[in-house]
């Protein structure tokens, strides 16, 4: 940017004429003084009516106005400014923070919205940004006007043409070419004049170009038109596509005999023409054709192309009496990455996954992105199930290594369902559907694996519908049970807390564990009712133990994302706690990192409200998410629960234990309590004790037990927790 333009922008910004509007004199004077001290020309208007009067008589660059004013409100002032001074910008400075007010202000043309009470530095920065942007726009308009005048005075038709304009002699040598050739192809006109036009023709089009120029019947009424590829100078850029139109020149009517631009001789010109760059059009045509059959993110075949190839493969397999396999792949934990790190990182992950998967394929296999984080794979001409099994294992192993996304190291797995032609179906739709069903059975059994489709899986799908019906009846019949797993002090073996865990006493299938029905409860939105039942029972049981002499006993409950994300989550939770006369300071709610990061602002506000009421906050399965750890010191978090997968890594000499070391050290540094889950051995317990992890839970102290068992244990305070 030229120095004089920079100086002009700076001068415009500091001398901007600003109208300040408010119905509170103290705020009006304070805001006006702040702006004057920063070098702005400020006019004050007490109320909206006065602001409209001033707008009729004076010119302003910017208006800072309140929304709530008794006579004429801020919205009306903005509307008036838009009528009489459309170039005057507006910044709202208001205590009104409702979404509707902010949205309405922005729709009316407000350039920014500053909430009262405002931070002076933030306000000045906002004003400076807006005025600077307005100055840039005005300077841009001024420069545009000057350019248009200059072009009107100095424009030369040929050199302002969007196309290359050229002239050729009888032999096809350039005797004139306009300057557009340099911007499009990189050749200075002087370099081309005197050279044959085939000098810039792509080798694949030389013959066609020569024939077109020498062809018969070229007249002014019947010019020669053709599409050719032209080379760029020095191959700096890719070959580009041009549509060339060439006309003959009648020597009798062409009086020009002087030297032309670039040094050519106009007297020898026999052809003139234009070359229009159609590269974008050709690329668009190729892109549309590619888009119809490929996924643009991963460049893989899409669903349509995959189905076409599968249909052909089935036809070939039927004729040759061969087998083929269809795999349905679904990434594990992809949604966590996508939700916590953002869609851009999610897209990068999909591309990286595609790159690894493609390395596992044989020639002739088709990998397709079916949608979202789902892929399908066609394996034609396999000999047995073992061929498909080996490919599946290669795919799973390929994705087990971590992916580096910027500063984040993330892990994903893959669940693979496999259907074999013709046993699992003899049509395209059946093979895809059955592979999908097999994949969901992998998900239900812990993910990160593969399964072949069998007819029993379809029966399982029907059973799933029955299970959903039974779960609804279970809520009506009160078949849910609450078990408690002790959280124990690792140094004293004293029970310091109890985690409430749900069980389902099914009338036919017996006692069911959370893994058997919680995923279904979440999918069918029954998780809210289920969690409320658990909380009610747990508050009743643990509240009784607290009042019976265990005043420090802590109740830990897991809450589903559906509950936490509900607008009335805090009120609903506290109503239930108070209804059972349960002391809030003895309650600890457990949520995962991903729940927080799904909507950091809203969830943070809810957690602060709960912490203010005495409720403790614990992060469950800590370390398995991919969110930034920055929230730990900004939110009212009291406890980190180390996921049992890290505790299992504690072995003599096992490097995996370093993750536990890091989490415990970080918790100590942030002055957070820490609970290690899944402790099963003396070795693990001793390791955690030495690290300073003083609270543990797991099968070392026994599985979760019903309330009657816990009551007997708490009745003997001298009993060792290891005997639970």
TrEMBL record:
Pfam family, one: Response_reg
Domain Response regulatory: 17-131
Keyword Nucleotide-binding among UniProt keywords: no
Positions of modified residues (4-aspartylphosphate): 66
Occurrences of domain EAL (ranges): 464-718
Domain GGDEF: 322-455
The keyword 4Fe-4S appears for this protein: no
Transmembrane segments: none
UniProt domain PAS: residue ranges: 150-202
Assigned keywords, A-Z: Kinase, Phosphoprotein, Transferase
Protein name: EAL domain-containing protein
Organism this protein belongs to: Marinobacter albus
